[in-house]
Amino acid sequence: MGDIAFTKTFVQHYAFIMKTLKKSHESDTMSNRIVHISVQLFSNEELARQVTEECQLLDIMVTVLLYMMESCLIKSELQDEENSLHVVVNCGEALLKNNTYWPLVSDFINILSHQSVAKKFLEDHGLLVTWMNFVSFFQGMNLNKRELNEHVEFESQTYYAAFAAELEACAQPMWGLLSHCKVRETQEYTRNVVRYCLEALQDWFDAINFVDEPAPNQVTFHLPLHRYFAMFLSKAVKCQELDLDTILPDQEMLMKLMIHPLQIQASLSEIHSNMWVRNGLQIKGQAMTYVQSHFCNSMIDPDIYLLQVCASRLDPDYFISSVFERFKVVDLLTMASQHQNTVLDSEHERSMLEGALTFLVLLLSLRLHLGMTDDEILRAEMVAQLCMNDRTHSSLLDLIPENPNPKSGIIPGSLSFESVLSAVADFKAPVFEPGGSMQQGMYTPKAEVWDKEFDPVMVILRTVYRRDVQSAMDRYTAFLKQSGKFPGNPWPPYKKRTPLHPSYRGLIKLLHCKTLHIVLFTLLYKILMDHQNLSEHVLCMVLYLIELGLENSPEQESDEEESAGGQERCHDSWFPGSNLVSNMRHFINYVRVRVPETAPEVKREPPASTSSDGLASSQSSRRKSLQRENSGTAQVFSLVAERRKKFQEIINRNTSEANQVVRPKTSMKWSAPGATPQLTTAILEVKESILSLLIKLHHKLSGKQNSYYPPWLDDVDVLIHPEIPRYAHGDGMTAVERILLKAAVQSRLNKRIIEEICRKVTPPVPPKKISSAEKKTLDKEERRQKARERQQKLLAEFASRQKSFMETAMDVESPDADIAMEVATSEQHVSEAIYDCVICGQSGPSTEDRPTGLVVLLQASSVLGQCRNSSEPRRLPTTEEEQIYPWDTCAALHDVRLTTLQRYFKDSSCLQAVSIGWEGGVYVQTCGHTLHIDCHKSYMESLRNDQVLQGFSVDKGEFTCPLCRQFANSVLPCYPGNNMERSVWQSHSNKCMQDLVQEVEELQEQLGTFPVSISSETNLSKEMESVMKDIKSTTQKKYTDYSKTPGSPDNDFLFMYSVARTNLELELVHRGGNLCSGGASTAGKRSCLNQLFHVLAMHMRLYSIDSAYNPWRKLTQLSQDKNSELVSEELPEVPVLYRDVSSLLLIQILTMPQPLHREHFTCIIKVLFTLLYTQALAALSVKCSAEDRMAWKESGALKKNTPSGEKSWEVLLGHVISELSKGKIYEEEETEELSVVNPDSVECYLQQFCLPFLRITSLLQHHLFGGDLPSCQEDEEFTVLASCLGLLPSFQSAHQFTSASCLDWPVPAFDMISQWCSELASFAGRHPDQVKALLIQEPKWDLPRLLQLPENYNTIFQYYHRKTCSVCTKVPKDPAVCLVCGTFVCLKGLCCKQQSYCECVLHSQNCGAGTGIFLLINASVIIIIRGHRFCLWGSVYLDAHGEEDRDLRRGKPLYICKERYKVLEQQWVSHTFDHINKRWGPHYNGL
Predict the structure, then answer these.
(1) Rounded to whole angstroms, how far apart are CA atoms 343 and 325?
(2) How far is 542 from 333, CA to CA, in rounded Å?
(3) What is the pTM of this model?
(4) What is the pLDDT of residues 282-325, one digit of tens each?
């Protein structure tokens, strides 16, 4: 009982609660709290019933709502602004804007869901009156007035509030009440609601002072009273078996009821015709919201249903003329070729006419409330949505208009939704194009749905954007092409309709009324005669209406045997009766039209006597008058006059007068305001019937004479089974054929007339004047001819200008011209590179004064540092036990090595023994487009002045390539001259090794003799310097400074050649870690190593290497004094065997003058290969056991004096072992035993050791000298690369190939090895513990990978969303985890902020040198941070329907999508985040 007591008290305080709500500023929190209480109280039916009975709960609620709304009422300006007595809510008020009324309405809806309470409400007349009173406050709210002069200053957004209010305060309670009117026994309730609803509507019409004309240029989308009336009518017929006519009001009321919903339909058309543009975008927003899936079944559907009810009960001529008048196209419906429209600009006529016809088609075809079952409706809705676009499961759920009431049976997700879905659609699993957009799992219509169920009418009704209709048609066209059903451009297919419910049979009268037939006849004639402002769309709709009429012909008309007397009955106007079947064959001979003086028809003399049996009728701008010789009376036929006459008749209820053709005088004079132009009468000779017009249209569409041939003449069967599949899909000709067949099937007379027309067909005779369409094409041809001539003239001018420019340009250089010529002849094969500038469009070479540059993106990268030496990728930890320690990454090991070297050796020498850039290395990529550097500067200026930039910062030098819009941030100057010495493949030059070694040394000595002299600053050298600055500033200082003395030049030296190393290594990674695939890679296009090398080389040559320390000497000469080293106090140099050979390679190449000669390059490789091989032997010797060592040492010594001793690994290994044994190198106890007993495994080990160097070198050679990389099998990679590099003297047969045969020693091998080993021996004397640790080991890095993720997202979520952060020890509000290293971070958390950087941004700098990939735990999405920008990448977890669930809103189980994760990983490794993801924004360090 405690419940009841509390509830009663709560109810008694209800009014007070409302006041609190109105005052409350934080109404949201307040409302939520109240709802939490009331939901509990009012959800219990028993409790609710008791309170209703004992405390007048319903009265209190309705009254409270009424009071609440009364506080924000304003006078309605609808219709009669001065005298209106109607008040509406003001949607601008906070009460509506903030949905403050929501808790009360929600309680109301809640208690109405109980049968017993709703019953009480529906029986209580007083309550119903009050409620209708409440609903009428919303009737006509948010009135729009069309701006005719200037654009509205302030676009109000109040329409959101208006739509929300109608949906929540009016429609939802309505659906709640409807759910209790499902059975016959509830008829009484419906009668009550309808009765009070009509009373409220009558009051409303009186209050706004409405007679029969709506005020022009006004529209409101809110007519909740109309919609209550409509929905209860629909329910009455559908569920309660009520006789519709017993609850419908009189004709006059129906006429009034139809006006406002019709006004909305016409306004929709006006809005889409851009007649409301001056009202701003919000009016389009309203038009869209009105049909949008959450609103349509409470707004447009009831409106159209109400219009269908009115149409089925009113006079059809009246209804049809009203429609054309509302759509403002009455004046267009004249047979004259010119007309004056007083209410519409001619540019809008076409789309308004299309709108009017489309509306009629919707009105006559839709059966949503006229007989379809709920299942049929669901299926039709689903098909319409799927035809517009493939849809995801969740968007379909959202787009199918649900009955806002849960008891209606169509519940999204219920069995019926899924079963219908599987019946009409196929599931397309997500597909991935790397670089393409992320797709989701989609449903797409089955073929038979396109074939049989595609319904353009339903699509038009449900499209929010007009382009969706086009999209559906395009998809339909594609289906027909694919399935071979129709190759051309099809017209929307005609679809058979569900039979009408008997209550609505009256709707068919619209299709069989003279007014419509006159309109259809006129339009067919106009289209045939090419009058302006008509379109294929108009024809399509006209044919559709004719076909609908033939499909639904009134049964009572038997065959027309008595039709001989038919002519006599034709006494009033164009057509004898109202049945379309017989009217189609009726010939109309003459028509009198009123036309402007200037019209071409005026010039023709009227025939001497208008034939008496012929009909001459005339249309004026407002009148069509019928002239008959024998009676002499001119009858007036005007759409408008016709409508007013009917209205008068109905109002006067004077049946005796209604039969006579008496008109109120006023309607004759009435015409639109505005100057009526001078009109004159002309008589047109027409002599056509609808049938003959159709046949001629067929000829016109086909472009052939006599193209139509009645199919039944060949095959009588078509008349018996007219449903032929070949007519199901096709274009206008197919539609005409289908209609003619249906006409013939329905009447023998029609069949005979069609045959007759076909026999004597003559081409249609348009007026003698050239038709406007032909005139247009003629004009077009002329214009195009002129344009062509203009273009040619321009081109000629360009050519001459360019020629004179070239000549003057050449003159300047004439003094050196002869020399240049000689040079050119001597070096024919070296062509100069020509570049196109994508800004100014000129092409030419890059010069020192005006250098050209490549558009490049520089980015710091730590991808290489993430390589590990195990092929098993790491997993993202999802338990406390699984932790990740970054000790075995490439970056960590390189770091340790450098630090150790620096401990024992001279700093400057250490900095040349390794490469850096494994972390924070600079990667340079280009889109391949070039531009003049000065053009680029002005381009940047213009970007700087342009304020509307998205996503990048010009101040940081960022821009997008002017041609391909790829993101970039620097320009790399192209070195003048030919790109590369692409001389013929000379694998061996004729010089001997010693000479070449000498030459290389001399070339290295002549420092600074760079072809571009630095002393004289040229533009080119300036640019090279500036790009070098850019490269340096791309990465953080901690990744460039490794020397013990800050700012030492050795540091820069190290950094520069490491940039080259980073780019080579990354290209290798992009190629999959080896060069087996050969060819130019995909990365090759992005690579700009050649230009990069020139820039680096120019800067490297500024640092002189002291010749005593030049590593080249150590590699190619035996040193004389062996004791000098021990004397000096300072730390020794790094022993040669401890130096990284790839780094030495880059140092050697980059300190040579550019361009490098091929032979010198090969010489350098050969020398370095000897060192590399020796390092491999040393590493091997340490690995094997002491016994093995002894064995190798002895067997090597035996073979030492054989002729090829220097090229046998056994001999060399033996020598290395014996030399190293002199130091204390092998004395340490064994660490790992490598059982290399058989020679094959030794050979294999040596090749694997040397391969990384060969790969880097081959890539380098490929970029410096061109030439393709050969492809090969993995096991041949060593031999192929060695021969490609010129290390292999000549290919020997494979079985006797050994890696040692590639050796080419510049000085006797044993002496050289002894010298190198002695350095180690002396080091071993001082630090025996370190000797082995520093030996270079076999490098085996796996490709970089992201962490492996678990199958089910829940695993991640459960572990991380409650996990505490290790920095601030709190549970983060927005937890995130780094997918590269697994670090757990607080996204946007202020708790972990350091110097204004939030934790994610900080981590992205430390872990990825500015690139971070984070999984947001609470949203399942991944974000990418790149420097100062970030983007939402998307999710790699999808639900069972292949969809993302961002922010985990839907709460479906999510599973890893491997393809997506692969795409993410690939973008990370290839550094293409910037290019592929489009939506970047600045993060201001706040992530």
Answers:
(1) 10
(2) 13
(3) 0.73
(4) 999 999 999 999 999 999 999 999 999 999 999 999 999 999 99
